[in-house]
Design a protein that fits this description.
mainly alpha; 6 helices
Length: 168
């Protein structure tokens, strides 16, 4: 797949903004997607293989998570599949929303009462991951994604029309 850099658009830059072209923004979205996706993949994989779903459900039960077995399945699959979707740039608005909801549950049920820092089981990681997932759901996968090829409207996020067709 060839990317035509001659077709990129310049967006109005706010004073002091250095990310004033679509390709630079799309590269930033790509790096954010991959970084956050890798973290979600690691956590989903850990729930499935290292702890196992039974161990994850038992831990969820001790933490007061409702329906711990169903919650363990949901968390493991959403984190693993959602992380892969972020890395690939596939269905990013949907994956981002599901991952954000997953992190909202972890934030409210498990981490909120423990302060900020992850060293005390606080909410800093789940808040950061949830916020990033929500941001990716809003802005979309960007130019360097499978969404751009398969469903160009998804690559621009919720409510933003595609400015040009996907390059094939």
């Amino acid at each position: 797949m060839a990317v035509s850099w001659a077709r990129y658009e310049t967006v109005p830059a706010e004073k002091g903004s250095f990310m004033n072209t679509v390709p630079l923004r799309d590269l930033a979205v790509l790096f954010a997607r991959v970084a956050v996706g890798v973290i979600f993949i690691a956590h989903g994989w850990q729930k499935l293989t290292e702890w196992g779903l039974d161990g994850t459900a038992a831990a969820f039960g001790q933490m007061g998570v409702p329906l711990p077995t169903a919650s363990a399945w949901f968390a493991a699959l959403v984190e693993l599949v959602g992380g892969v979707a972020l890395v690939a740039g596939l269905a990013v608005p949907v994956a981002g929303l599901l991952l954000a909801l997953n992190m909202l549950g972890a934030f409210l049920i498990v981490h909120l009462g423990n302060g900020v820092f992850v060293s005390t089981n606080g909410f800093e990681l789940v808040l950061t991951l949830g916020t990033m997932a929500l941001l990716l759901a809003a802005v979309g996968a960007g130019r360097f994604s499978l969404d751009r090829i398969i469903a160009p409207r998804l690559s621009h996020g919720v409510g933003r029309p595609a400015s040009e067709p996907a390059a094939v």
